[in-house]
Design a protein that fits this description.
This protein has 112 residues and is α/β, with parallel strands linked by helices. The protein contains four helices and five strands. The protein has one domain: Transcription Regulator spoIIAA, CATH 3.30.750.24.
């Protein structure tokens, strides 16, 4: 699991390389929590271009991040998710709740 982040304006893009699975959720949560709590950002974009698989615990983590950010009047989006990952979001209907964009730039545009 490799996690990196970069700020783009008032938004932080988090790049995840690896699987978003039970064994990795605590690592991801520990990495993202300070970003969520930062008063300097208006939202977080999770770039999923290098995510191969996501399990139910990973989905739970994504929903938790979404809820925490929206309660704080911040934005949350996913970008560049693979077709396989997108199928999971469609099956669970999370694509109807979450912003899922083709690119980081498109996600930022949807925020504004």
């Amino acid at each position: 699991m490799i996690l990196t982040s970069k700020e783009t304006g008032n938004f932080t893009i988090v790049n995840i390389e690896g699987n978003i699975i039970l064994e990795e959720t605590e690592t991801i949560k520990t990495f993202i929590e300070p970003l969520i709590e930062s008063p300097d950002i208006n939202g977080i974009i999770i770039n999923g271009s290098k995510v191969d698989y996501i399990d139910s615990s990973g989905l739970g983590l994504i929903v938790s991040m979404y809820k925490t950010l929206t309660k704080s009047d911040k934005k949350f989006a996913l970008s560049e998710v693979s077709d396989k990952t997108m199928e999971i979001f469609i099956l669970t209907r999370l694509n109807e709740i979450l912003i899922i964009s083709d690119s980081n730039e498109a996600a930022i545009e949807r925020f504004n």
